[in-house]
Amino acid sequence: MLALIIIGVLLIFTFLVVAHEFGHFLVARREGVRVREFGVGFPPRLFSRKKNGTIFSINALPLGGFVRLKGEDGEEKGKDSFTTQGFWAKTRIIMAGVVVNLAIAYLIFTFLLIIGIPPLGQKLPSLGAIKPQSMGDSNLVIYNVSKDSAALRSDLRQGDSIISIDDMQILDNSSLRSFTSAHQGQTVDVSLRRNGQLYHKSVTLGSDQKAGYLGVSAEKTQLSRYPFWAAPIASIILMLQFVWATLAAFGGLIVGLFVHHAVSDQVTGPIGIVSLFSQVVNFGPRFMLLFIASISLSLGVVNALPIPALDGGRQFVLILKKIGFKISPEREGLVHFIGFIALISLMVIISIGDIIKLR
Question: I need a labelling partner for 332 at 20 to 30 A (CA). Which of 63, 110, 167, 193 fits?
Fold first, then answer.
């Protein structure tokens, strides 16, 4: 199961990064810049084909993708070189990947706001006539199953919706706690919905309040939607909220590392994403789409930051050159290399934090 979860995360990440790189590819071609290679994954190369002067390759390491442009290192000249392009042409090429990631997030958010979006843990946009509407019945959804609990022994899972216990309708978490407390140690029939199917589980409740009589954390959830005309506007507002949250989390990471010497709980790395994905898959396709949109938006926002080795860092150097700073290709390359090493180091630190949180 873990292998499938890891493969799923790799596929999502690869799709989003390849889409990002495809943005660079399309705009570079449109601006007349020669694309030497468009690669899916990273070398060693498994398969390649050359078409219209570009090598399209499939590579062994499934960690995203890349494009190689003529003149991106500042060395090569010529009409079809990145080096000889004007400021705005370079800007469009550099920032195209960010735009693609934001566009993917926007389309998914808009789609979810039309068909019904699950709870986000934050207030949905409400502005005049643009306000969310509740749809369908609210469900008491299991978000966590405790270790060695009655629920775990009876095969209750994350994402299950509790309908009733002994034919008594359970509407909220308070009702659930009251019922299980009153029937501790007894065997009860739990009716639940899983992936659209109705199941009945015979559960012998525990008698230890500390461990939990049933042993689940459950929350009342309800889908919300917007009218077709309002969803695109609400999606923009929602994305701005997510952008602010992403920037705040990144700022918290920096403050945490240099002031508190600890990784912020708001930040997660590859290991944490795998752990999160393993839970998201239990809650259905809407949560999966929400997960993909959030990752795509985060990739776009972080890549836009003025950090060496990222698109925002390259754009920042381009702006410095535009206003008169003299930066040689060698010095720019060194800055981006140092930035790359710093990013890898940061990822290692975040991953260690993920492991500590999981433990």
Answer: 63
